[in-house]
Each structure stands twice: as C-alpha cells, then as structure tokens.
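Re: weekly structure request thread

Next one in the queue (510 aa):
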Amino acid sequence: MAGAHTREPCWKKFVHMWAETSRMLLLLWVVMGMEMGGARSVSVTVGTYNLWNVMFNWDVRKHHIAEMIKASNIDFIGLQEVRADEVSTDHGRQRRTQVDELQELLLPDYKWSSFQGGHTVANPKDKKMVNEWQIEGLALLSKYPILRSEMQELTHHSRTDRVKRKVLHATLMVQGVEVFVSVVHLSYDKWQQCNNVAEIMAYIRDKKPKYSLILGDFNTYVYYEGPLEGFHLGYFSTQNKCPKYAKSKNPTVESELTAYDDAWKVANYGLDGFTFSNMPSPGFVSRPDRILVSNRYFRVVGTKLRGWGEEYAVNYKRQVILARRAAVIEAARRTYYGEVGGDCGYDCGPHGSCRCGVCIAGGNKNFCSLPNCRECSVGSYRRYLLARAIFAFFCLQLLLALVQIVLAMIRGSTLGHQGSSMTRTCPLLPLAPSWRHLRHLHFASCLRTVTSSCRNLALVNLTVSLLGLLVLSMLSRTWFLEALHLIEDVLPEELNPSDHLLVSSELILL
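Done, posted below.
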C-alpha cells in the first residue's frame, strides 16, 4: 500500500535509547572528571612571627617557637627581627643565624630557608658579644622549595627611624604552583610607611606574580591605616593620607593593580585580633602582624593566633631558671679568671637591670657590670668550686655505699643457705638471712641484710653521704643567698615568649 512503512519493533527502540543514554552519561562523566581534575584545589598554611631577636633566653625560647610552628602545621613562615652573627674572616667561623637554629629543631620537615641581613644593631655593653648576633634582618622558613630569593632596599626618608628598611622577596614552588612571598618589617614612622608601601607595590607589579603574599610586621597604627589601605586597594586613593608622599609611584592602569585582603579580617571579621604588647601589662593593644593575600587568587579558610605567655611560663619556667643559673655561674667564672664579657647581651627594658648576665627587676638602679657585681665575685666563685668538690665527694661516697649494699644483698641471696660459713666467704654480710626469707622477699629479711652491712661501713657511708649532702644544701643557701635571689628574680616579660603573637592562615589557591 502506498505511503505505508514498516513499524520498528519496541525492543529495538529500547536498545537505541539505552545506547544513547549510556553514551551521554559516559560523556558527562568524562567532562566532570576533567573539570574536577583541572580544578584540583591547592591548600597551604602560612604564618608570620616576630622573633623578638635574642631577647630573654633565646636558647630556651627557640624550642617553644619550634613547637608553635609544628602545632600550627605551617607550610612556610615569614620571620622578622632575625639575628645573625657578623661574618668574621679573622676567625673563619661560619655565620650563625636564628633561622638556622630554628631549622635544626624542625628538620626534616622544613628543609628550605632564606635569610637577608638588614642593619647592624648597636654593640652591647658585653664586649664578649661584639661579633655575636649583631646583624638583624628577615627570614623565610619553608617545607616547600625556595626557587629564588632577593632583597629589596627601601628608600630611607625618616628622621626618627634610623633603620633603613628592606624586604625579602622569595618564589616558592607549592605543589606545582609558583607563589611569590614578600616578608616585610615596615618603619614605625607613619610617613616612612607610605614610601615603604608604595615601593613594595611597585616592585611586585614589576614582577607580575599571579599568587602574591605579604607576610610580616607592618607596624600599623589603629589611628593611621593609610599605608595598609594602599595594599588593600592596590593604589593610594585621593582620600588616603599617603598620596602626597607616594602618588608618583601610583599605577595608572587598572590591570597593573594587585589588591590584597587581610587574612585576619576575612576569617574573623569584627574581632580585634591584637598581636603586640610592649609589656605583660597593659597587654596586647595593636595588630602589626598581618598576612595579606592577593584577593583574586586566594581564598582564606581560617586565621589563628598562637603564643600567649601563659603557656610558655607554665612549660618553660624551669628551663628559664636553669638558663639564668648558668649565666650567673659563667659571669662568676669570667670574673675569677679576669675575662671580658659576661654582661647581658640585650637590653633588659625599662623595668629591668642587668646583673651577672641576667635581667632583674628594679629598672636601671640595680645595674652593675663585671667585675663589680658581688653576686658573681671572685669569692663567690671560689665558694662555688669548693661546694662542687664537696658535692662530688659525698656523691662518690653515696655511690660506694649503694654498691656495697647491693653486693651484700646479692651475696646474701646466693650464699644464705651456707649458714654460718657466710661470715667467712662474704665479709660484707657476716649475718646473712636464710634462703627461705630471701626467696619470699620478706621485709625483715631485707632489713637484716641491710643492717648487717653496717659492720663493713656500708650503712655508715650511706648515712654520712646523705647527711653531708643535706648539710651542704643548707650551707649553699647561705653561701649563695644573693646569687639565688638574683636567679629567681625573673621579670614578668621574661616569661612571655615574645612581645608578638604568631599569626597563621590556611589558604586555598584559586
């Protein structure tokens, strides 16, 4: 019949529909897989911390700082006020830096570091330290490879801030992505800050990095955030207080701008997040320590603070006391042998005085310099040497007594069954207990074993050594009363790990 056509079976329609649906699902799965693979997020945790140079027991504090970095799970951290030795060609010793000492505690995780010296600090009164820790600069410590690093010298204009500021710029390879990191410590002069920020922005624009971070101590003021606003916008607006100082460095093309978000404000909007305090009282009053992230290419997941003094005081007070005791003994030794040095290698602050290499309360009125300190005089060191000799003698006597008693008990346990013959074979134990008592470890048997050794002076040695150590301890409290007061007079700020807190932020690279 004309116009008639063969009707397709239903099962064939079903097969065609199933094939088409499967093909579409397969294509969708491939496309989604490609998109997911291409959008693989890279997460990184960054930090910034002002080390507080070598203030107050650096050899103790560095362990606390390393613990904070580990606990925060930081991938890389910018450090300020990092000290280093002057390079001494005369003695041929290798330069020592604080970041190197931190890295030793954090290996093998943190394999990469970079240090850039900034300025020479004033020589301390302690002549022994004239070549030690005299360079202060910036550093970066990282789990990821540092491909390259360079220093930017900033123009100096300030009459109040004598320090010529510099910036450490470094490029890191973070999970296959190059991240440009700038570590800063800006001037505390607010007019100088404007120039600092303008020059840093110009430098970064020339590098044209996609992923840019600025970590550091910005020395910001609550009443003057103009320089930071320049970072946040990528330029100085006409309402900003900085343009008349830095407007010539402003970009003219919007595509050149790199605007930054403050990681703390993004994650903790409305919270103060103060990180700085000159002293334990009045406490933290400002937020100079910040993490700035280029807002187009980073997403802030969270930002935290760490490092309050209470933790340090609880966990490290004993180590602080031991470090102070070692400093006083070293000062006394130098006085005894007529060596130079032994004073504090840092400023004790407005509330402290330096005596015998440690800081104590009382302001400058209690200051003294070697060899004029009575707590670490020649006579005190002689008494210290005598006390050490007596202590060593009584410790040796105590050890001998313990060995005699142990030998007596061993021989008593192995030869006790021989009865009266024990007195002939073991002069240490003429009245040995029976094997039955020793086998059951009866108290009376052990007591009899110990008391029997008295006839061979074991118990006498034990008693004399213990009494001698007790008397020596009592005498030492009198001999070294002033030195002990000196050691225990710890400034409140000395039990703070730093006058800055550590800031860490978890970021996702977009």
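Confidence is low (pLDDT under 50) at residues 1-6, 26-39, 417-439. The first helix runs from residue 10 to 38.
Next request, please.
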